[in-house]
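Following up on my earlier message about magnesium ion. Here are the inputs again, as you asked, copied directly from the submission form:
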Amino acid sequence: MLTLENVTAGYGVMNVLDNVSFDIHARRTVAVVGESGSGKSTAARVITGLLVPSKGEVLFEGQALPQSYKARSRDQLRQTQMIYQMADTALNPKLRLRELIGRPVAMYLGLKGRALEERICNLLNLIELEPDTYIDRLPSELSGGQKQRIGIARALAAEPRVIICDEVTSALDQIVQEGILRLLDRLQ
Ligand code: ADP
Ligand code: MG
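Thanks, got it. Here's what our run produced:
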């Protein structure tokens, strides 16, 4: 599905990734393991087009993706979604869940009105937040684990082929971490 091919990338003159290659196959999970500062998030940035590598390519189903997200099509952007470590800072504090989840649904799938509302409720049910109770809440009215569930719903809203999880549980306490891992496992 997704291939990193001989990617060298870094910041300024410092190389963080040196000739890195790996494949991600459909319906499989690939774990990227390494100490803090070893370049895991940098690899995610190259895949999502936030960082342009100095060498190498990212291929989606065998076709090279434009290096920068700016040059990628809406459909190419839709296919690879990301869930972030800091659920808190990843959500616009002024938007209610209706909009936080509704915007990517409208943008990527073009749904409006009733169909949009149904899809938002459907995604809330999927992450086990009761739509009537939660749809009009702000991020500040949620627990840490619930915020991360919204991060998951936003990624799923785009109906992506690949989801990158960048330490999505490390900001949560242990019991909540387990709930998030179970949820991701169930959604796979
Ligand atoms: P990891 O996610 O594995 O903890 P990162 O990919 O975030 O590691 O960082 C890899 C290296 O790149 C670290 O040495 C870090 O200091 C450096 N780095 C990360 N982001 C930047 C940046 N925006 N500018 C300069 N150096 C950075
Ligand atoms: Mg990181």
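One observation from looking it over: The pocket of adenosine-5'-diphosphate (ligand 1) is lined by residues 11, 16, 34, 36-42 (CB under 6 Å). Hope that helps, and feel free to reply on this thread.
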